[in-house]
Design brief:
NAD, glycosyltransferase, alpha+beta, Signal recognition particle alu RNA binding heterodimer, srp9/1, ARTD/PARP, 5 domains, single chain, globular, nucleotidyltransferase, EC 2.4.2.-, about 30% strand
Amino acid sequence: MAPRRSTRLATSRVVAPKPAPKPLPKKPKKKRSVASKAKTGTKKRRTGLSNAINPIAALGVVDPESKINGTIQTLDNEPCDVMLVLVNPQKHMDKFFILQLIESIQGSQIVYTRWGRTGTSGQALEQSFDEYDDAVKCFEDKFAEKSGLGWTNRSHPTVGTKYRFIQQNFAEKQGGYTSATWQYWVDDGVDGKTISWYDYDPAGSVKVEQLFHENSINSRLTNRLVESGIFTYDVDLSAMTQTNVKHSNKTSRRIRRCPEGVKLEDGIPQTISSLAIPASPVKSAAIVTPSSTPIKGASGHPSPVTSSSSSTSPPVDSDIDKFHFASPSSDFAVVKDEEHDEWCDVVLNQCNITGGSNNNKYYRLQLLEKSSTGNFYTWFKWGRVGDAPTHNAQDLKGPFSTIEAALKVFTKKYKDKTANKWGDEHYVAKAKKYARIQIDHKVGIKQELKSGNVKTEDIEYLPSKLHPKTKELVEVLFSSNTRDEALAAFDLDLKRLPLGVPSQQQIQAGLSILNDIEEKLNGEVVVTGSYPALSSAFYTAIPHSFKRNQRPPVINDQNSLQKRFDMCNILLDIYSQNETLRDIEKKRPVKQVSYPADSHYDSLQAKLDFVDHNLAEWKTIEKYFNTTKNSGRLINAWRVDRNGESQRFNKFDSLDNRRLLWHGTNIAVAAPILTSGLRIMSHSGGRVGSGIYLASMQQKSAQYTCGSSKFACMFLCEGALGKSHVIEHDDWTIKKPPTGYDSVLATGQIAPKTWKNIKVDKKNVSVPQSGAVDQSKNSQFHHDEFLVYDEAQVRIRYILTVKLH
């Protein structure tokens, strides 16, 4: 007998289903990998944002608009709570398709769908089944119809013009996307409103917060079209603007996100410069970024350009001192254009490696006022990125007796180099012209924090309470020299970069271009532009200090792409660390305060206990290092107890096969790792996919360790490995262990011969006791590598300082 099936259609939402009648006799069910409750899923995290997220294990959330009382089913360890999107801003298309398999409290199986334009409730459909297998088949067929993919290969690239399967932040979804509210800026008197920030209506705020989280863990979702009443808004989550694309004026406004419990300033929004796009002739649609609307003066007319030396002013270029001894940079201040609410300080960059070219050059423009005379000057500097400035590549023009005369020279040069008019509402990057980029002028910290001086004119630091070795470690981890040395490994030598450190927004622009390169490599979508053109765009967005005879390398394979993703992750971690340092400076009082290293230590939110070299514990660590190394020397070790990590690790108490394993990293991100733990970044990856890589041989992890001139840092971590799935060949696509396994072991040709159990928190943890021996395996891997795909499956036990050679 055919199973009972009922179907209902609604235009905006679906009413709750009627209680199911007495079920008919059921046929025997086929055995499937399903459950009524979801198992722990792999955690995901996005690099590049300041508010990075780390979703909890996905359980799925029944669509609130369905009014169905039930729970989300799982299929192959994945919650049957699917979000599909079809986004094409060029075609003004942004649609969603929700697909869920729900078990109602009456016991019936419901395939629920809701679809429509983003921002609307759309239409909904319920299909009820008595037979579970029939419901699963309907669910899988619907998924295949909309995405072009089978459920088992749902993570594969999007098929043609079909809907795209995207990841969801189920923790935020469960909370109704209310962890932050959204506001828009009004400065044109619309509806009689005064100049200020205004709250979105609650429904609109929830929708944009959802889009924010979708963008945070998925690529290519920066620009979204949102229907709201009779209007459609282009929401740009990178430039943080909303543009009414259906209004004749195409009104564009600043928007901002207000996290719960965080008090934001009510002042005028900062101008967000256009993100860099290819300077080379790449055939693509023009990208425009709205600038801030001019603030009118009391008379209703635009205010004149004025000069300002307030604390928010960008720094005057210190290279002036190298060529103009009679006019030191300390005697100047950058002028602010009040009409366009923008400082007259412009950083331009252009890289073009298409067709055998080797262009990698910059241009700097500033409009300055000399405090000693009140006269005005323009400062121009140019050259190849990485080369020291020369006398023939700089020009300090002036004095000008009026600001209008100086502004005329400044704006003419700006137009010559960018083909844009200064003050235009929209900035459009033009082919064969310089692109405007953003620089983080606040990346440095005050000199006393760099040097560790205990006294300044206004501040007296209390003596440090830290162990001397701990104090030394913290000072190195937070040192600007450590940062500079780490970036130099990626051809980002700050001592040779005349432009400064890219801003957070500029890093996101670079990541967006890397996403395009990744999609081109994977063949996911048709990406306009060659690899040299896309690489040029990336090096334009994030200036690199290549030597004059060194052509910037084309990013055209997985290895070179991963290296640049890693670089961007490090830049974002450094940005986060700098924010911590700035907060420390803001909060400290005028008089006695904690020693800088003590404040930095507190910001780590981790307890570090120095391991005395006379302890048996030290001897165990030292033996492990010496028996599994190629070269180098162990210097010191600290026990690590990160806030909250032990509780998180407890959920894997039932797993055995626990091992103490190595993890190497760049010293620049050692402090962020101590704060946030080892993370699975959205673009972290390698030969065994996107997970946390651990090794039993120090010599293996040392390959991924980059230190400072003083030392490098490595971690010893306890991995709760459980049952390991063994592989001998590369597989870049792995995102979680196969069903029935807890981890992946990429077995190597060599591995430690013997292991010994030690007690850690009353559990047996294995530690190698001998060097490597040949395992007589025909494996592509030289060393054993252990992979876990859940961040909570690893607990950092020690941080070590080492000399690698």
